[in-house]
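INFO  loader      accepted 1 record
INFO  loader      residues=78
INFO  predictor   begin
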Amino acid sequence: MEYQTLFNLVITLSGVLGGWMLNTIWSAINDLKKDVKDINKQIHSDFVRKDIYNGDIADIKNMLGKIFDKLDKKVDKN
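INFO  predictor   done
INFO  writer      dumping tokens
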């Protein structure tokens, strides 16, 4: 076997192996991107925005204030 033929065979095999490895890495990266996108959608649907939370807490504090005012004005208080 000539050296040129052996060299061509080695280059071809390394090209095929390198291409297969790059394709595998590319597929893994695309799968990870898809998973991260799905997780981000799930996170955004599971949590409450800060401004909505602050508004709800303000409403609860207002209601509690009214309850405490009624309790303070109660006649049979000791």
